[in-house]
Design brief:
single chain; mainly alpha; 4 helices; about 0% strand
Length: about 170
């Protein structure tokens, strides 16, 4: 059982001090200011303003999400529309590489490397034609997860090359 000092209070404003019978003084945690009509209306107005502000923030977030989704959809359609162009360009490069492989100095090893590169370019062209943007992103994510170090090196090299292109 807990013993109490007779001069302390529990914070209850109705509790009386044992020795005097006088009501105990209110503590900061137990004090509540009496509400007047003005205080109540100010509280209600503050709640209404906060509710309206929260609603506007929610509407703005919803609008931003819709705009982002629309932009992503437009970008996806643009990239999907360019797939045949990109695939055609890869085929053209593969054909030119294959045609000129014999003329590249360096002997059989260089010729075989050029022909292997042409085969890879043709495979990339076929992949671009057959897969939409979502499929490509899924494949890219799978590759990055299975080869994180190599992916970082490739990303850094690509960033460097793009930076050099824009710098020139």
């Amino acid at each position: 059982m807990e013993s109490r000092d007779p001069g302390t209070t529990s914070g209850d404003p109705t509790r009386r001090m044992p020795s005097t019978g006088v009501p105990a003084p209110a503590t900061a945690s137990s004090y509540q200011a009496p509400e007047t009509g003005d205080d109540a209306s100010l509280t209600d107005k503050a709640r209404e303003s906060a509710g309206a502000a929260l609603e506007k923030v929610g509407e703005a977030a919803h609008t931003a999400r819709e705009q982002a989704a629309s932009a992503a959809h437009t970008a996806q359609q643009t990239v999907d529309g360019q797939r045949d162009t990109v695939a055609g360009g890869l085929d053209t490069v593969a054909t030119q590489l294959r045609d000129r492989a014999e003329a590249i100095p360096g002997g059989d090893a260089t010729t075989q490397a050029a022909q292997a590169a042409a085969v890879r370019l043709e495979g990339a062209s076929e992949y671009v034609r057959e897969h939409d943007v979502n499929d490509m992103l899924t494949d890219l994510e799978r590759i990055v997860r299975s080869h994180p170090t190599e992916s970082l090196i490739v990303a850094a090299a690509a960033g460097f090359l793009v930076g050099r292109m824009f710098k020139s």
